[in-house]
């Protein structure tokens, strides 16, 4: 346990210094906005916390995760029920880090992991993604575990509108979405979605998943690999 008293303006420096001194692999932050469970009513909107998150993302010595809490991932009355986790994978360093975190979750037999690969239709994008797609397959097949319930689903995507439709179609299927912060940036997967992004710290796809207009109340974990 570590406790430090500091001003809000300097808090990100304390967090980054402590992560560096301890050799941390991940800094996990709370999203600045919270809602009523299973609803769209905003309970808090802490702009000081948002500023902290943005500063940590810029200066962190390790990977950073921003957790958007929408509802309990495990319901108290249903602790024996599995937790349904969906990793959204397009390719890139942030998605690799998100994949690594999701891979750790497979060690819990109550976790059902789905890797949802969004593959751009353009040949140029597909060629750049082929290596990443093979990596996902290798992670899955080279590390088979007893009771492993992970699956991979591929969707070919032409633009951001199709991406939005796909995510809306599976919105109620999962309790937690995991995505890289810069997932899909520069590909047809997010084309047109960036114009509607409200919170840059969540990235294009993460912002869509956390939007009040997204039908699901699933929580979201957005991951940024160390730069």
UniProtKB/TrEMBL annotation:
Q: What is the lineage of its organism?
A: Eukaryota, Viridiplantae, Streptophyta, Embryophyta, Tracheophyta
Which organism was this protein described from? Arabidopsis thaliana
What InterPro entries does the annotation carry?
Answer: CHX17_C (IPR057290), CPA2_transporter (IPR050794)
Pfam families recorded: CHX17_C
Which residues does the UniProt record annotate as the domain Cation/H(+) antiporter C-terminal? 85-225
Q: Which UniProt keywords apply?
A: Ion transport, Potassium, Potassium transport, Transport
Decide whether keyword Transport is in the record.
Answer: yes
- Superkingdom: Eukaryota
Its GO biological process annotations read: potassium ion transport
What name has this protein been given in UniProt? (thale cress) hypothetical protein
The answer to keyword Coiled coil applying to this record is no
């Amino acid at each position: 346990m570590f406790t430090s008293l500091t001003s809000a303006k300097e808090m990100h420096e304390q967090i980054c210094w402590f992560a560096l001194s301890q050799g941390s692999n991940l800094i996990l932050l709370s999203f600045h906005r919270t809602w009523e469970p299973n609803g769209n009513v905003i309970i808090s909107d802490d702009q000081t916390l948002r500023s902290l998150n943005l500063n940590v993302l810029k200066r962190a010595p390790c990977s950073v995760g921003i957790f958007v809490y929408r509802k309990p991932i495990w319901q108290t009355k249903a602790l024996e029920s599995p937790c349904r986790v969906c990793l959204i994978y397009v390719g890139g360093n942030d998605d690799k880090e998100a994949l690594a975190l999701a891979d750790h979750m497979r060690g819990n037999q109550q976790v059902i992991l789905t890797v949802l690969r969004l593959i751009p239709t353009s040949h140029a994008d597909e060629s750049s993604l082929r290596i990443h797609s093979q990596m996902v397959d290798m992670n899955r097949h080279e590390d088979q575990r007893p009771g492993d319930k992970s699956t991979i689903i591929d969707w070919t995507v032409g633009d951001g509108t199709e991406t939005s439709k796909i995510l809306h179609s599976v919105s109620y299927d999962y309790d937690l979405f995991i995505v890289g912060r810069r997932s899909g940036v520069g590909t047809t997967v997010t084309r047109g979605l960036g114009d509607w992004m409200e919170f840059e710290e969540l990235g294009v796809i993460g912002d869509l998943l956390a939007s009040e207009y997204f039908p699901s109340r699933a929580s979201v974990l957005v991951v940024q690999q160390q730069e």
